[in-house]
């Protein structure tokens, strides 16, 4: 395929492309399966059919476990053998699969609690969206540090990197995780995040905001902002059970393992 070779192989982006494809496809498939299992387990007959949670020795094995193992194996093989095509692309695709399995349950290892279908489980969707966007930006060859153009430009180059990283850090301090992380790759995103208003519960707002500015922040990131954000999360991940803060133990349901 001339187009594939020209666009991905010759530019060294083939592995990144397969990693992104593996990540996105796995997330879509896993969320589809989890929502199907959840719907089936809400029926009176309970768990039926081939698609259901996996238990080993009576323990509910979360799919992040398989993702962690897959990422570890792929990393070990890549570091040891650094294989050429097509094995390098295959390992990249498997890495994307493992990363999706892990990030789809980000909230579980962040809170150390089984909150997949709880409100706090929406953080997993945030992690997946950030991870997917970051992978796509890297695939498009966005560089976090740019290029040098001769020795005379070195100080300007280093200053540009410093400003870039500082704006990304400010975005994170302002409570804008996605903006800060993606801004490491795309400087303009970090700059916009650093200049705009901080979230009211962020470290930046707690130390620097008071009076009218704090009130502006609360209005900007108030109930309507949260509702818009949750609609986007629910579109990708399904609506959580808002009556529960967490679901504990092996009783949590609705996910293939």
From TrEMBL:
Superkingdom, natural source: Bacteria
Coiled coil: none
Keywords per UniProt: Membrane, Transmembrane, Transmembrane helix
Transmembrane region(s): 15-33, 90-112, 124-142, 154-173, 179-198
Cell inner membrane in keyword set: no
Region (Disordered): 237-257
Descriptive protein name: Integral membrane protein
């Amino acid at each position: 395929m001339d187009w594939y070779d020209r666009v991905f192989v010759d530019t060294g982006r083939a592995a990144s492309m397969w990693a992104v494809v593996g990540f996105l496809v796995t997330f879509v498939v896993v969320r589809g399966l989890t929502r199907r299992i959840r719907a089936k387990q809400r029926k009176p007959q309970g768990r039926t059919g081939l698609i259901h949670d996996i238990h080993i020795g009576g323990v509910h094995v979360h799919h992040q476990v398989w993702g962690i193992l897959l990422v570890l194996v792929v990393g070990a093989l890549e570091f040891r053998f650094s294989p050429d095509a097509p094995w390098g692309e295959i390992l990249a695709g498997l890495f994307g699969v493992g990363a999706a399995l892990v990030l789809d349950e980000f909230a579980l290892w962040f809170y150390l609690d089984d909150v997949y279908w709880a409100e706090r489980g929406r953080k997993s969707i945030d992690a997946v969206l950030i991870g997917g966007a970051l992978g796509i930006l890297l695939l498009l060859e966005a560089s976090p540090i740019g290029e040098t153009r001769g020795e005379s430009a070195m100080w300007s180059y280093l200053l540009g990197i410093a400003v870039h990283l500082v704006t990304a850090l400010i975005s994170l301090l302002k409570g804008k995780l996605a903006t800060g992380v993606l801004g490491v790759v795309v400087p303009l995103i970090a700059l916009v995040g650093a200049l705009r208003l901080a979230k009211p519960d962020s470290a930046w707002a707690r130390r620097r905001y008071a009076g009218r500015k704090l009130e502006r922040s609360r209005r900007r990131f108030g109930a309507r902002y949260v509702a818009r954000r949750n609609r986007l999360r629910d579109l990708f991940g399904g609506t959580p059970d808002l009556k529960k803060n967490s679901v504990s133990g092996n009783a949590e349901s609705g996910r293939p393992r």
